[in-house]
Design a protein that fits this description.
Layout: H1 4-13, H2 18-36, H3 44-58, H4 65-75
């Protein structure tokens, strides 16, 4: 069974570029794992990012409060 909204969006997704379809597939995979009680399996790219973050933290490389605020300011609604 598909809802009308899902059927409509799936039809539109078929015209998306491959990279966008792959991104959607990853999001759906995460939702499905959460619904089925499955264990999340990080992708190799995600694992690389985690390792990079852990190395940075071990080396004491953190953003300053001003850098964090500047980053958040970019995404706040005016």
């Amino acid at each position: 069974m598909k809802t009308k909204r899902l059927a409509e969006i799936l039809e539109r997704v078929e015209s998306w570029p491959a990279h966008a379809q792959d991104e959607l597939a990853e999001i759906v995979r995460d939702i499905d794992a959460g619904l089925s009680g499955g264990v999340y399996q990080a992708t190799p790219e995600e694992l690389e990012g985690i390792d990079r973050g852990l190395r940075d933290a071990a080396e004491g490389r953190f953003a300053t409060d001003d850098e964090v605020e500047a980053t958040f300011a970019k995404f706040r609604q005016p």
